[in-house]
Amino acid sequence: MDIRNRNCFGRIAAVVMVLLMFAGCSDGSPGGGDSASSSLRPVAAESLQVIYQDDAFGYITPEGDVAIRPKFDIAYIFRDGLAPVRVDEKWGYIDSTGSYVIEPQYSQVTPFKKGFARVHVGDKQMYIRKDGSQVGELLVDFGYHFSEGQAFVKMNGKYGTIDTTGSIVIEPQYDQGYFFSYGLGLVRVGDRYGYINREGENVVEPVYTEADNFWGSRAKVLIDGKWGFIDTTGTMVIEPRFDDAWSFIEKRARVKRDGKWGYIDTTGTLVIAYRYDVAENFSGGYARVSNRGKWGFVDKDGQEVVPLVYTDVKPFSNGLAPVKTALRWGYVDTTGTMVIEPRFVQAESFHKGLAKVSLKGAQAYIDPSGRIVWSEKPIQ
C-alpha cells in the first residue's frame, strides 16, 4: 500500500506495519550523516523507533537516545535496512545514520521488502533496488511486492508477472493477480478465483467466488455461500461449512457459524468452540476475543488467559499486551496480571523492546517496566 499522509499519532502507530547499524543524523546529502551523539553505540536499523517532536519526525534508539534528529515531514519505520521519509512533498529513503541512500524525488513509495520497493513516476509505478537503480525498463499501472521471485503487475488493464530483473514471466491476462505462496499465485478470471504456478499454468481452476492466498499450506475459498479450505493440489480438505472464515495463522483459523466465532486447526477440527461475538487472528500464541463489547485473550487451547473484562485490547508482544479499562490503557502479562498500571490515553503493542504511548498531552515510549525512556516534552 502506498504511503500517504496521516495524523501524527496514527502516522507513527499505524506503521506497526512498525519496523528500523549506526545511530546518527544526516545533513541531507548522501553519506552526510552527522552523529547525534558520539557516545551512541551501533544499533540495528530495524530497532530504531519513529518519534515526532517540534513538528518533525526522527528516530530514537531502544534506549531512548535520539539517533536521527527530527527533520522529516513524515517518516516510517525501517524495513530491509532503509526507511521511507518525506521532505517537501517528495519521498526518498534513508539508512540508519540518517543519510539519504535514495534522494527524495517520488510522489509515493512503498517500504523495501526483500531488496525491492515500488515508486511512482507520474501515474505509473516502477520497481527499484536499494541502491536506487530501476529494475528493468517497465513502467506498470500497478504492482505488488515480490513473492517467490515474481511480482504481479497490472499493464493495460490486465495482470501478469515479472521477475527480479524486470522481465515479463507471465503475460498480462488476468483480471487480478496477488501473490505467490507455496508455489501458487492467486488470480481472478472474470468473477472467479483460482491458482496458477510460477510458469503460469493453471493448478486450481478459477471456480471460486472468493479466495485467499495460501497460508500454512491451506487457502480459504468460498463456494455456494460457504467457506472451506483447499490444499496446494486444489483438494478440498476442509469442507465448505462456515459462514465466514479467515486464513490460518499460527495453525489456527477463526471461523464463524450461527453468528459466533470459534477456531479450527489445519485438519478442520474445532479446537475453540463457537462462543465469541468477535475473534481476531492469533499472534504470539494468543488471540483477542470479545463478547458483549468486552475483550480478553485466549490461548491456542481455548483457555481465556486474560478475562474478557476490557473495553479494548491490542496484540501481545514481548509478553505484554495493551488493555484498556474504562478510561486508560495499561499492560497485562500472559497470566492476565496488570504489570503496567492503566495511565495512558493511547498505547500500542511493544516493538523491539519499546511501546508507543500517549499521556498528559505528550507522545512517549516506555520500556517493559513501564519506565518512560523518551517523550516529546517533559511529563510532570
From TrEMBL:
Determine if Glycoprotein is one of this entry's keywords: no
Q: Which UniProt keywords apply?
A: Signal
Q: Which organism was this protein described from?
A: Prosthecochloris ethylica
Q: Which Pfam families match?
A: WG_beta_rep (PF14903)
* Signal sequence coordinates: 1-28
What's this protein's name?
WG repeat-containing protein
